[in-house]
Amino acid sequence: MLKSALEFGPILAFFVAYLWLKDEVFILGGTAYDGFIVVTAGFIPVFLVCMAALWKLTGHLSRMQIVTAVLIVVFGGLSVWLNDERFFKLKPTLIYLLFGTALGIGLLRGESWLQAVMEGLMPLQDEGWMILTRRIMLFFFGLALLNEVIWRTMSTEAWVYFKTFGLTASIFVFFIFQGGLFKRYALDEEG
Fold it and tell me: Are 93 and 171 within one domain?
């Protein structure tokens, strides 16, 4: 439960802080920053503290968590430094493109890099890992495209709702629909 709180807590905190400060403007050093930028500035250290606590708790961080943390610092930092929310909104697109591309490179090599990262969580036959990897790769590319459409065509508030609930729900629903694959390709306890 603590692990889940450390993973999802910063996202929910970002959402609540955004709702609270979205209509505010803050003057810092003679520059006006809207609520989104201030919330983004606060999100970065909160996220990093939670990642450090998660590392302390579990003894490791996945490559996905590390890459996500780096992109949050870089693109969140650019948003704050340049006072431009577009950089932070672009971050999910880049994360999903990066992970989708990495999985695609593994598939081109005939390997499931997803299996290397998640094998302990889901014991599947090799064929199941390859199918799941293809599906997740396509799913990540779809999420990248969807993020681009949402942030470029809708309001910041709509994007925040999408980022907080839409992306999380879509990942949850995606894995629910993989139940048949998990059942069909699950390794039996003896195997």
Answer: yes
77-110 per-position pLDDT tens digit: 999 999 999 999 999 999 999 999 999 999 999 9
Task: Determine contact, residues 133/141, Cβ cutoff 8 Å.
Answer: no
H helices within the chain, ranges in order? 2-21, 35-58, 63-82, 86-108, 113-118, 126-153, 156-161, 167-176, 179-185
Domain range enclosing 99: 85-191
Q: Which tokens go with 133?
A: 């990897």
pTM to 2 decimals? 0.84
The pLDDT value given to residue 141: 98
How far apart CA 171 and CA 118 sit, in angstroms, is 16
Is pLDDT above 90 for 31? Answer: yes
- 91 and 106 in a single domain? The answer is yes
Let me know whether 74 and 103 are in one domain: no
Give residues with Cβ within 8 angstroms of 129, minimum separation 6.
112, 114, 115, 119, 185
Q: What is the mean pLDDT of residues 113-117?
A: 85
- 106 with 42, same domain? no
- Mark whether 114 and 60 lie in a shared domain: no
| Contact (CB, 8 A) for 50 and 68 | no
Same domain, yes or no, for 9 and 24?
yes
Residue 174 sits in the same domain as residue 110 = yes
pLDDT given for residue 191 in this prediction: 44
